[in-house]
């Protein structure tokens, strides 16, 4: 892996407010799916507008592509990207057992959060923002109470530059995107579930209004989380998951 995939463009920037914001600005002018990488973000954001620390040495990128499928299908690319991240981490570290996937869109390293994904629609394009703690991890005081502790990839001894990680991730993603377009979500879901964190264990899915505690049983064909509870199976469409 690492060879730049055909059909994808790239923009590498020194400093930008947010690669997601830059993707939205560039979308009307882009002729192909495009990766945007920044050495530094000054106004990065995560889910629900949460801030995301992106010091130099970490990975901050967005893939923006024309959206040709329905929104629900396009949203499944969070699983495509998280699986591509998992494969990229294994490739650059050789440590398969150290990484796991946390529903809906995080990657864990030895139980700590090493990467996160944020999807945004912008006109007729889909933007997939990715943040990876390659060299640095935020302190515990920078995340909300109960959240998974942040960790950095450098804790494995792997020193990977953002540019090298982009080459690796872009190549891995292109393979999985082709699979997704050809065969649909089923093979992506099966591969994702093989690396799912805490499957068969009790977890908590929390929204702004309520929370559900249950056994993580499955992810369905629509990407929803399936929890087993004393009242039966519960389908969770969107939530933050706590262990």
Q: What is the number of beta strands? A: 12
Count of DSSP helices? 5
Share of β-strand residues:
25-35%
Largest sheet: 7 strands, mixed
Assembly category: single chain
Order of helices and strands: EHEEHHEEEEHHEEEEE
Average pLDDT taken over every residue: 93
Could you name the CATH homologous superfamily of the largest domain? Bira Bifunctional Protein, Domain 2
CATH C-level class of the largest domain is: Alpha Beta
Please provide a written account of the structure.
By secondary structure, this protein is an alpha+beta fold. The chain has helices at residues 19-26, 71-75, 77-93, 162-183, 185-194; strands spanning 8-16, 33-41, 59-66, 99-102, 106-109, 112-122, 125-132, 202-206, 211-219, 225-229, 232-236, 240-242. The strands form two sheets. The chain has a seven-stranded mixed β-sheet, sandwiched between helices. A five-stranded antiparallel β-sheet has the order 11-10-9-8-12, with no helix packed on it. The mean pLDDT is 93.
Short account of what is shown:
Helices cover 26% and strands 33% of the residues. The chain is an alpha+beta fold.
Write the layout of secondary structure elements.
Elements (H helix, E strand, L loop, with lengths): L7 E9 L2 H8 L6 E9 L17 E8 L4 H5 L1 H17 L5 E4 L3 E4 L2 E11 L2 E8 L29 H22 L1 H10 L7 E5 L4 E9 L5 E5 L2 E5 L3 E3 L1
Parallel strand pairs: 1-2
Antiparallel strand pairs: 2-3, 3-7, 4-5, 5-6, 6-7, 8-9, 8-12, 9-10, 10-11
